[in-house]
# Entry
Amino acid sequence: MRRRSFVHLALLAAVIAAAVTAVAVLIPWLPVSASRERDRIDVTFWLATGISIMIFSVVAAAILYSVWRFRVHPDDDSDGPPIHGHTGLEIVWTAIPTVLVTAIAIVSAVVLHDNGTTVKNELHVKVTAQQFTWSFQYLDGPAKGVVSPDLYMPIDRSMKLEITSVDVLHSFWVPQFGQKQDAVPGQVNPLKITPTRLGTYPVICTELCGLGHSLMRRQAIVLSPADFAARRWAAGLPGGPTAAGAPPGQPGGGGSGKAVFAANGCAACHTLAAAAAAGKVGPDLDKLPAEAKRAGQPLESFVHESIVNPNAYIEPGFPKGVMPQNFGQTISKSALDALVQYLIQSSKGGGK
Ligand code: CUA
# Structure
């Protein structure tokens, strides 16, 4: 009889485990993995998921079986038999969780170590976060010296991101790469990524950093080694990086105002038809002439001042102190002139 109960219990647990496993495996809960680091992290996820399914199945089976097998009559008000502990059971339910938790800890420690280990021939990229955009500066490899508003990566090559911020706390996240790293002013935080899948993935800021937080997005683009080395993506294509769009602290060259606009992430906050920008955090740049009139200034000096000293005049309806205060230092003079001329031309021509 006891043996039969055990068989019933085991069968019930197996059925529950199969159902829960189907839910875990058949539904794609996580975005596709696109990096070696993410593959390793997934191993820890699956280990913990497997353990959870096992425990859940046994507990759920015991509850269901008890409800079915030991149900009393509604008018049975008698006490159950008194039970004073069971040493053997207590040892078992202490030992098993100890083993499981230790296993998770060991596997996690190995993955953490592997994901942080320096590998030969890795590429170094300085990642700078600011309200509300990213910039990526290649420190070595075939793209050395390139500064890009998007993160281009050669497949199967390890990259070490050196992440920092020029203003407030941000956090770097590409879901398909499986890791997050904080961007902290005055500090450089490392993050290793070895992409394993060609494609375009979102770079997301995952630390609330101000009004434009939800718009602080860029792209990570994984290329073949040949495409990466060819640097076509860095040759000033539309929206592509140029020397003019130098990141904070970098000397910038000349270049077109449109490239400066793109590289400094202006589109994240502002609307400008000529740049296909539709940000709503800051004032509409298609309406610059009207805004200059309200500020009582000639258009050119108004645009220039609004970039380098944004708090001098605040357009009604917009909060003070949201626009970064440091563009006067981070954009070179020639790039700034190009940007001012571009904005003037765009707002007169393309805008309404
Ligand atoms: Cu940067 Cu949120």
Q: What stands out?
A: Confidence is low (pLDDT under 50) at residues 236-254. The chain has nine helices and twelve strands. The CA atoms of residues 16 and 145 lie 57 Å apart.
